[in-house]
Amino acid sequence: MSFDLVFFGGTGDLTWRKLMPALFQAFRHGKLPGDGRILAVARDERSDESYREFIRERFAEVEPSKRPSDDEFARFAALLHYRRMDLSRPADYAGLKAWLDERGADTVVLYLATSPHLFPVICEQLGAAGLNGERVRVVLEKPLGHDLASAQEINRVVRSVFSERQAFRIDHYLGKPSVQNLMALRFANALFEPLWRRESIANIQITLAESLGVGTRGDFYDRTGALRDMVQNHALQLLTMIAMEPPSSSDADAIRDEKLKVLKSLKPFTPESVARDVLRGQYKAGMVGGQAVPGYRDEVKVPADSTCETYVALRTEIQNWRWAGVPFYLRTGKRLAARDAQIVVNFRQVPHPIFPGMSHANKLVIKLQPEDGLELHLLAAKGSRQTDALTPVSLDLDFDKAFAADRVGAYERLLLDAIAGRLNLFVRSDEQEQAWRWVEPILDAWQRDPSSLKLYAAGSWGPPAASALVAREGFAWAEEQ
Prior knowledge:
Blueprint: E1 2-8, H1 13-28, E2 35-42, H2 48-59, H3 70-77, E3 80-84, H4 90-103, E4 107-112, H5 119-128, E5 136-140, H6 148-161, E6 167-169, H7 177-187, E7 201-209, H8 218-243, H9 252-265, H10 271-277, E8 278-284, E9 286-288, E10 291-293, E11 311-316, E12 328-333, E13 340-347, E14 363-369, E15 373-381, E16 390-398, H11 399-402, H12 410-420, H13 429-448, E17 454-457, H14 465-471
Parallel strand pairs: 1-2, 1-4, 2-3, 4-5, 5-6, 7-12, 8-17
Antiparallel strand pairs: 7-13, 8-11, 9-10, 11-12, 13-14, 14-15, 15-16
Helix pairs in contact: 1-12, 5-6, 6-13, 8-9, 8-13, 9-13
């Protein structure tokens, strides 16, 4: 299959930090279709050769195991091309179409690695230039909008130019191997499905923690915040994967139909429930990894009086028969104690304990990063006497070790799926809009009451009130258990 992959924003951070290294790994692994071209477009004046040198220099910044040798880069660089484009100029889109039509590849993937406010104008210009035929797919990076109204406007413009099956709304968490394994875990193993319900599960916790701060992205982050940056997309997508009903097939729309049902079943927030069940925080100066780090308001390009949240913890419920009454706890934050993304399924205690030391219930930990695997926590008898207390033990599956030769990174997987036209791991417009609809009451409540912001020390696990959020129902976060 021949393909042309076009990156709008071809000199931007996302392209050279994430997308180009992911494409190189696909090339190195022999998974990239052989007859392909990769075109970067941006406002800079560059030649193909100068762009290839630009990418070579940036590859020096990726981790050593993922850097190409000179021979590997020379072969990969032969795929790279560059065009200067003014994204508001129709003639430049006509020139792009002529470049693409000259070869007539089977598939054209247009990846919008730009600021979301440019999505409408780019899509309108693509449509006007005739770059929306059946062989064309458009990939839209997050965040798709700033609120429900802006997301709906972006989707309106996209749908006026492309069909829903041509639109690939990317959420890179869905490309993580461990997230893909959620489907296999739940729907290919008879062991778990009978237990995957309110009768057996006490609560589910989703943690997306980062030890890094905002770096040089302070101006962007201060306009966005943790709720928009992580909860509205990544955390809610994980929640739908863990909570959805079995789809009728592995077809993309069958899966996305079930995810949408979960989003529609989430208990709506009111001003009263936001005050009770949602916590937002902002990091102050502290220690991370033995190093002193500044507070958020002292970061580059962050206002000294900022009320932007760098941490969110919340409690929600899914109002359906499977999950009624089961708390779902979501939290995410920057400058926390560790980089740790995981889903913890805490099972209920046995109804009648007959052994001493049965204070620990079973739990399943689905590790997303930095490790990738599963831990099943059980109780076992340590000694030979019936009076001996039981001891927690765990069965640990490391996916990276078990499937080392077949593992691919999130962006690598998603780029290959976009080229192949597989929509399973991409977000449909109605999913995205429903997620915005659910978080908007939180945004509205915070706008009315900026004083709800809690400070927490960098290097901690967030504001102390986050522990109280789960403790009031007799539960604890994973690191406190």
